[in-house]
Design goal:
Number of strands of chain A: 3
CATH topology of the largest domain in chain A: Arc Repressor Mutant, subunit A
Largest sheet of chain A: 2 strands, antiparallel
Strand content of chain A: 5-15%
Low-confidence stretches of chain A: none
Strand order of the largest sheet of chain A: 1-2
CATH superfamily of the largest domain in chain A: Winged helix-like DNA-binding domain superfamily/Winged helix DNA-binding domain
Oligomer: homodimer
Number of domains of chain A: 2
Chain lengths: ~180, ~180
DNA sequence: GTTTGCATGTAAACGGTTACATGATTGG
DNA sequence: CCAATCATGTAACCGTTTACATGCAAAC
């Protein structure tokens, strides 16, 4: 999903500044399947404003830089629902890890072990985060959260199960 | 993984033309976690040649356009192993589907049903493809293939299990 | 007193896709 | 006869990232 549409989505849930939108992408339940930097969020918000899909009000605050609070308009709301209703781009999973594993025979065993351990640690921490995350506020959020838990749990199980097969130390039996 | 590195990887397995590399990305076991278009492959190959990481020989064939067969050089092989050994970019899963599900309350139930069914059908066909795919030629390929099978199987199970919850027809009980 | 958090934005560079241009061969 | 496959490449465009520029307030 492009940043434009993602911002529009966030704003259907309530007003926000560009800064807050970034926070929501990072910390919120969207974290696992969308992401965006300031360099894409601010221009997107500018364009959405031009097109009348969102409106801005500048809040001047004593001794701090002004903040621009964005609200979605009716037109924006309609455009967003249209985007959700139309054909969605396909999900894509890009995995440098799996790519590297394909060339496992070219990588020294020591590094292979490190790679697998890193992958396990990452999956583990993501799973923990998902399990600790606040219970969802609606059906959709619950669906997505459970999806993530299920997938990461499976991934973790698979990686752990297969690890020994690849990382069996040959000489260093003590470790 | 960028197209450059991906091409280099393919060429560690044997010589190929730009056209064949694209085919391998599309049909081979890489399909699920890398992709590239001609517009990125040809320039990448050109740059790799300039840098001496690959070499080209032009095969002129009677009455057909010439083909340029690329081979990886020793320098290229070393560069590739270095890329695999260095820190890898993080895996990323971008899911317009999950994003849309988060806003399930804004989408008409009929469309939600279609979305889920589409997702189920996609996962199903990918799983079938993976299950039918030729058995891997090495440990790494087997690992990756099984990874895919495991993940898609889990995804499919989850989607099917949850479908009723979301798509329960309200009026059209006959369907 | 230094780091973190809040807050906005721009410009250049990057990597990639899409569309275009070309053309012969093979299979239905 | 038409579509698909083989085969190469370029140019325009697009969205995004990275780095830069700025600055105050609060927490440590």
């Amino acid at each position: 999903m492009d940043v434009r549409t993602a911002c529009l989505g966030i704003l259907t849930r309530g007003d926000a500044t560009g800064y807050e939108i970034k926070k929501l992408f990072e910390d919120g339940p969207y974290h696992y399947f969308v992401e965006a930097s300031f360099g894409s969020i601010y221009p997107a918000l500018g364009r959405l404003t031009e097109e009348g899909l969102v409106s801005v009000r500048a809040e001047a605050r004593a001794k701090r830089p002004e903040r621009k609070v964005y609200s979605i308009t009716d037109k924006g709301r309609r455009a967003f629902v249209e985007a959700l209703t139309g054909p969605l781009p396909e999900d894509r999973f890009r995995s440098p890890f799996l790519f590297a594993m394909t060339f496992e025979d070219l990588v020294p065993n020591e590094h292979l072990k490190a790679m697998l351990d890193h992958q396990i640690a990452t999956a583990q921490s993501r799973l923990v985060q998902l399990e600790q995350s606040a219970s969802a506020t609606n059906r959709g959020q619950a669906f997505v959260c459970d999806f993530g838990r299920t997938m990461y749990a499976t991934m973790l199980q698979y990686l752990k199960q297969r690890r020994s097969e690849f990382a069996a130390p040959v000489l260093d039996a003590a470790e």
